[in-house]
Amino acid sequence: MERWRLIIDAPRDGARNMARDEALAWAGAPPTLRLYAWQPACLSLGRFQRSGEIDRAACGRAGVAIVRRPSGGRALLHDAELTYAVIASEHHPLLGGSSILASYRQISLA
């Protein structure tokens, strides 16, 4: 059976968390599960989401940083949570292989 790498990172700010995910994705790393937290609280925007949809002033007043994720989707508020990232080929057999939605389903069933 193939070995996966497990990375458990200390809490980091949003920009550093996203830079770490992106670096792992581009590094040609072995299949990896990364667990991490956000400090301070951060709103992450999906790759293609328009930043104009976000009330930046309200985020600033609340002390919530804003960052863009390398993945798609909508805005997510990260605060006092454990986040995971799966870094592997989209065609990896353990991830469903046929589509990104199949991959999400397979991960959620694990």
UniProtKB/TrEMBL annotation:
It comes from Kouleothrix aurantiaca. SUPFAM superfamilies: Class II aaRS and biotin synthetases. Residues 27-110 form the BPL/LPL catalytic domain. InterPro entries: aa-tRNA-synth_II/BPL/LPL (IPR045864), BPL_LPL_catalytic (IPR004143), Octanoyltrans_LipM/LipL (IPR050664). This is BPL/LPL catalytic domain-containing protein. Coiled coil: none annotated. Gene3D superfamilies: Bira Bifunctional Protein, Domain 2. It comes from the Bacteria. It holds the Pfam family LplA-B_cat.
